[in-house]
Amino acid sequence: MDYTFRKANPEDQDAIWSILQEGILRRKKDGSNQWQDGYPNADVVKDDIEKEIGYVLESGNEIAGYSAVIINDEPAYADIQGKWLSDSDFVVVHRIAIAENHTGKGLSKQILLSIEDFAKDNGIFSIKVDTNHDNVAMLKIFEKLGYVYCGEVFFRGSARKAFEKVIV
């Protein structure tokens, strides 16, 4: 199947929010505390699109996945308890979610690989991410793709595992 990774537009907002709601329910079903506190929400999606940091993975005319992709802007990452691999420009990835009818196809990995291409296209060779300690699926994906555990960062009062991948 061919997938297209592109910037989200306002018409995508409802589909993206639906995908994130499915992800919220999936996290809960998996016993994870991630995304169980009212975040993300529809306002976050609207804000991502307005700031032009929301991206979708499209299969034909259907949105199969979503992620926020941010260059050099995550204040929480400045206060890592640990050490990043690099101090250069970086791409931050937040809110990876896959539509329920597209799970199990490796699309989170596809999104991360698309973000690697995005980073290289922008002359950036570092990707920084974080996830809850109990998001086993995402932790496995980071490991498979060569992300290195760098320490902990804190969001909304809770610790998250932080990873970096230096790409060449």
UniProtKB/TrEMBL annotation:
Name assigned to this protein: GNAT family N-acetyltransferase
PANTHER family per the UniProt record, alphabetical: ACETYLTRANSFERASE
Cited SUPFAM superfamilies: Acyl-CoA N-acyltransferases (Nat)
Keyword Transferase: yes
GO terms for MF: acyltransferase activity, transferring groups other than amino-acyl groups
Pfam hit, one: Acetyltransf_1
Entry keyword Transferase: yes
